[in-house]
Design brief:
heterodimer, A: alpha/beta, six-stranded mixed sheet, four-stranded antiparallel sheet, B: 12 helices
């Protein structure tokens, strides 16, 4: 049984160009309900852009996005993003608000919960990531790992159907990476649908259900972690794995 | 020693100063503050509108804000005050029957302050990391809600020192409204000092006016420094007992 009200997510033939720079060249990505898809690939391959297109922070030039089998391109993008949580490399907590206010802001303003209830729910989320005792601190007074766990709590508070992680541990000191990865693995085990853009090959291999290897705006290879990491078929993936492993 | 005596008498005639002090405090100080505070507040409101226009995604709004700012920053205060005060004065008098120059003076000061304050706000808003807007939008907030709840509050904080500086400028620029002609009770600090200096042939009342301005502005400049320092080093935060950490580590034994 899933702890989350997760949904499936599908990107179909997604294209995006910035001027003459063709960043996404027909990406297909399917994430089944309650599974974790990791997206790996060299810098500049379009992984982070893909996430931003799938929650319509950037509108695709072409293609379709399906949440639970239904196209969401015609929906209000703000409402779509309420259903998809996102965690960033640089955390992007709101520095002028306390930790608990970071988590409760969307609950109050978008879910229209009364202040007390929003705070109570935010504290519950903070408890899940082990940071309830930091509720009234400012983000600047937290370590990077703690900030990223707050950012995860902030995204989870909206009860998203899908969670995006954009290189969530890349900006962390090595000793802080583990805690964040463990939390992400817990979410995956709990049945959250997740798309994880990552350079952590260990996480990709051990936690995700499918792995997608992107290079230069196309999906070069995708499959089970076993298949991708032990028997890569393409030269590009073989070369990439030789570089990072 | 005659020359020195003469000099002291010209600038620091305490009796002449004491004579203008009651008027300066009762009318001058009050009127200067009315002019500076109201045009400061109105200038902030109009300035915020200009800043939001100047950072908007619409080219037309950005150009409009740019033109306004260029015009009102590029023209001397004295010209704007005269054009507004003398140009619109008769119309206002015909419509309302009021000859009080304050509304038009405040209007003119506001128009100019807004151009500067708009630039201050715009630079603050643009200094906020792009990730803040992105994170807010990713949560499901619209562009305008994201600006209002996340980006603008941070932008304003960063430019508080510049904003206080602008208020100091307004306090000083408010002296220019003497050009519009003021009744005795409408005079601000400078005009009271200037009138007394003209009547007595002694500059001490003007020196007294200068002191009055300093009493207003020096604390504000120190406020700027204080805010600036606090923004750079952060608010002195009360340390909270870290209960979770106390289960292990040093706190547990204590």
């Amino acid at each position: 049984m899933s702890e989350f009200a997760s949904g499936s997510l599908t990107g179909k033939n997604l294209h995006l160009s910035f001027g003459s720079n063709h960043v996404l060249r027909g990406i297909d990505l399917h994430v089944a309900t309650g599974t974790t898809a990791s997206v790996i690939g060299p810098s500049g391959s379009g992984k982070s852009t893909l996430l931003r297109v799938m929650n319509r922070l950037i509108e695709p030039d072409q293609g379709d996005i399906l949440l639970d089998g239904r196209s969401v391109l015609k929906d209000n993008p703000d409402e779509l993003r309420q259903r998809i949580g996102m965690v960033f490399q640089q955390f992007n907590l709101f520095p002028h608000k306390t930790v608990v206010d970071n988590v409760s802001l969307a609950l109050r303003k978008l879910r229209k919960l009364p202040a007390e209830q929003a705070r109570a729910e935010a504290l519950e989320q903070l408890d899940l990531v082990g940071l309830k005792h930091k509720a009234d601190a400012r983000p600047a007074n937290l370590s990077g790992g703690q900030q990223q766990r707050v950012a995860i709590a902030r995204a989870l508070a909206m009860k998203p159907e899908v969670m995006f992680f954009d290189e969530a541990t890349s900006a962390l000191d090595p000793e802080l990476v583990k805690g964040v990865l463990a939390l992400m693995a817990d979410l995956a085990k709990g049945g959250m649908t997740m798309v994880v853009v990552t350079h952590e090959m260990g996480f990709s291999r051990n936690v995700s259900d499918t792995v997608t290897f992107m290079d230069a705006g196309v999906v070069v290879e995708s499959g089970s972690p076993e298949q991708i990491f032990t028997s890569p078929r393409t030269e590009r993936l073989q070369g990439f794995l030789a570089d990072v492993l | 020693m005659d020359a020195l005596d003469q000099l002291v008498k010209t600038f620091f005639d305490w009796e002449a100063m004491a004579a203008v002090l009651p008027n300066m405090i009762m009318f001058g100080l009050r009127n200067t503050l009315i002019l500076a505070v109201s045009s400061g507040v109105l200038g902030c409101i109009l300035g915020m509108v200009l800043a939001v226009m100047g950072t908007s995604r619409s080219t037309a709004l950005r150009v409009l804000s740019r033109i306004y700012t260029d015009v009102f920053r590029g023209v001397p205060a004295i010209v704007v005050i005269l054009l507004i005060g003398l140009g619109l004065g008769p119309i206002v008098r015909a419509l309302t029957g009021s000859t009080n120059p304050f509304p038009l003076a405040i209007f003119a000061l506001t128009l100019m302050a807004a151009a500067y304050i708009g630039e201050i706000f715009r630079s603050g808003i643009q200094s906020v990391e792009k990730g803040q807007l992105e994170a807010s939008r990713a949560l499901g907030f619209s562009y305008s809600s994201s600006m209002r709840l996340v980006v603008i509050p941070q932008g304003i904080r960063r430019v508080l020192p510049a904003l206080v500086n602008q208020f100091i400028t307004l306090i000083k620029d408010s002296s220019l409204i003497y050009l519009l002609g003021l009744l005795a009770s409408e005079r601000e600090i400078f005009r009271i000092g200037n009138d007394a200096a003209a009547n007595t042939g002694n500059l001490s009342p003007l020196v007294a006016a200068a002191f009055m301005y300093l009493i207003l502005t020096v604390p504000l400049t120190h406020l700027v420094n204080y805010i600036d320092k606090r923004l750079r080093t952060g608010r002195p935060e009360k340390r909270q007992p870290d209960d979770a950490a106390a289960l292990i580590g040093k706190g547990a034994q204590a």
